[in-house]
Design brief:
By secondary structure, the chain is an all-alpha fold. The chain has two domains: 73 residues; 51 residues. Helix content is 55%, strand content 0%. The chain has eight helices and no strands. Helix 1 packs antiparallel against helix 2, helix 3 packs antiparallel against helix 4 and helix 6 packs across helix 7. The longest helix is centred in the last third of the chain and has 18 residues.
Length: 165
């Protein structure tokens, strides 16, 4: 009896989509893949399989948080989802301040939206330190940008005018 092997074809197990990718992948497998793939491909894995993740696995939440923040930094519509992930992860005691890339921008108004900064600053106990600092920076920038320049106040109040005798 002779065995024949068909090496050229791989048969998918389970349901798959039109592009041949499985319709579902285990959460931990997504973490393994996401940590080994190029960033843009890892982002696709997150968007396709983990964007609605509702569990509490710290490793999965770590990947979700990372990609959620990257998406939010590029498009403000992702901030609510990113904040929800960060709240859940932080509540579990999984703390990670590795996102300093998000902090360093030329202007605080380009870092996070004002409404997101206010939400974070109003409940700082729910978020990691780096995000609270970022929110504080944005709120301070917004307040200071609404203040009149000190030179205008001095001019209007006559600070440097000789006193009337």
């Amino acid at each position: 009896m002779r065995a024949t092997h068909n090496v050229g074809r791989v048969r998918a197990v389970g349901k798959s989509t039109r592009d041949g990718v499985p319709a579902q992948i285990a959460d931990r497998l997504c973490v393994i893949l996401g940590s080994r793939l190029k960033p843009e491909v890892s982002q696709e894995v997150y968007c396709r399989f983990l964007s609605a993740y509702a569990g509490d696995d710290p490793e999965v939440l770590e990947l979700c948080e990372s990609h959620g923040l990257r998406l939010a930094a590029g498009q403000t519509v992702y901030w609510q989802q990113a904040l929800a992930l960060m709240e859940r992860k932080y509540a579990l005691g999984v703390i990670n301040d590795d996102y300093y890339w998000l902090q360093r921008v030329d202007s605080p108004d380009g870092s996070i939206p004002a409404n997101v900064a206010i939400r974070i600053a109003s409940q700082p106990q729910k978020y990691p330190r780096f995000l609270v600092y970022l929110a504080e920076e944005r709120c301070q920038f917004d307040v200071e940008s609404k203040l009149p320049p000190i030179a205008d106040i001095a001019q209007d109040d006559g600070w440097f005018q000789p006193p009337n005798v």
